[in-house]
Structure formats: structure tokens, C-alpha cells
Amino acid sequence: MQLPSKLNINSILLCGIVGLSILSISWHQEMKLLYKDIKRENIKNYQIVALNKQLLSERSQILSGEEIKSVALTQLGLKELEPKDWGKWYKGRLSL
């Protein structure tokens, strides 16, 4: 059995190193593109959340307290709070 010559071993190692280097560069480029995509999507998400908060704020300004009360009584089935249900202050704590 003949041992491989140094030239064969060195050429195999060189090809392996070059191949891993090319893969490393490719992986780095893919990670860079993925990071940019994630950053872009996060910016879009923050814009959507900000718009949603703005719309909710505008909607709550439009609705008055009476409209909210009527919706709570009719659609949600809540009952109106009566003065006897307010509870009593007992030693600094609200007691029902």
C-alpha cells in the first residue's frame, strides 16, 4: 500500500480550505440579507403598531362616555352601578 504523497495531501487540504472559505462568504452574505429583511419588517411592524394606536386614540376621542356606557349596558350585558353597590370605606380599604 502506497502512502499518498505530500502534494496530494496538500492539494486536498487546499481544495477543502477554498471550499469552506467560499461557503463562509456565502453564509455571511445570506445572514446580511436576512438581517436587512428582518430590520425592514420590524420597521413596518412598528409603523403598523403606531398607526393602530393612533386610530384607537382617535376612536376613543370620538366615543363619549354615554356611548360607551350604552354599549356596555346593551351589547355587553353589564348592569349599571347603583350607589348601594359602591361599597364602604372600612379602615382605609374599600369593602363590598
Distance between the termini: 96 Å
Q: What structural class is derived from the secondary structure elements?
A: mainly alpha
Report the C-alpha radius of gyration, rounded: 35 Å
What form results from the Cα inertia axes?
A: rod-shaped
Classify the oligomer. single chain
Q: Whole-number average pLDDT? A: 82
| Order of strands, widest sheet | 1-2
Low-pLDDT windows of residues:
none
Largest sheet: 2 strands, antiparallel
How many strands in all? 2
Helix content: 55-70%
* Count of individual domains: 1
Secondary structure blueprint with pairings:
Blueprint: H1 6-62, H2 65-74, E1 88-90, E2 93-95
Antiparallel strand pairs: 1-2
Task: Explain what this protein looks like in three dimensions.
With 96 residues, this protein is mainly alpha-helical. It has one domain. It is 70% helix and 6% strand. It has helices at residues 6-62, 65-74; strands at 88-90, 93-95. The protein has a two-stranded antiparallel sheet with strand order 1-2. The N and C termini lie far apart (96 Å). The mean pLDDT is 82.
Question: Which tags fit this structure?
Answer:
2 strands, 96 residues, two-stranded antiparallel ribbon, mainly alpha, 2 helices
Compact description:
This protein has one domain. Helix content is 70%, strand content 6%.
